[in-house]
Amino acid sequence: MIRLVPDTRLPAGLTALMAVQAGCVVFFLGDLVADARAQMGTEGASFHLSIEAVATFALLAAIGFEARYLRDLMRSKARLERNLQIASAAVHEVIEAHFTRWKLSPSETDVATFLVKGFEIAEIARIRGCAEGTVKAHLNAIYRKSGTQNRGQLLSLLIDSLMAGPTDGAPHMKTHVAAQ
């Protein structure tokens, strides 16, 4: 079974943008303080100083919003990855249950697993280190034991059982073929 490893890295582009924005805030705050000190002896606050202050604090607020949004996106991504891992394990269990119910041998289980994953006969033979004829013999046994006649029917049977939800047993292939 394929194990999914959650990616907990922050998106580099967004993180870099936020770092640049934070640097700008520090620069603008320093400039704002310097301008305010320079105007301390003069009468009234300058319009320029007010605009600079609003822009600096708006940029600071934007960084806060981006950080919160990024945190929420990362949490959502982690939740989706956990759910995908659970679903993947459940699919694997359902398929393995079918293989057990059909009483497939270990070699037939290997071949059936590769078949479900979409490998061609030649690829399965190469991976398993056997002849294509051996893989074909295993496939014939798998089709016979599962009540199917080909890859399409086998996959259809497995997909139908996944879509049907939890049941005591998989639908019989003859029922499935008749429904088509």
From TrEMBL:
The keyword ATP-binding does not apply. InterPro entries: Sig_transdc_resp-reg_C-effctor (IPR016032), Tscrpt_reg_LuxR_C (IPR000792), WH-like_DNA-bd_sf (IPR036388). Residues 101-158 form the HTH luxR-type domain. The chain crosses the membrane at residues 12-29, 49-70. Keywords: DNA-binding, Membrane, Transcription, Transcription regulation, Transmembrane, Transmembrane helix. CDD domains: LuxR_C_like. It comes from the Bacteria. GO terms for molecular function: DNA binding. GO terms for biological process: regulation of DNA-templated transcription. This is Regulatory protein, luxR family. The lineage of its organism: Bacteria, Pseudomonadati, Pseudomonadota, Alphaproteobacteria, Rhodobacterales.
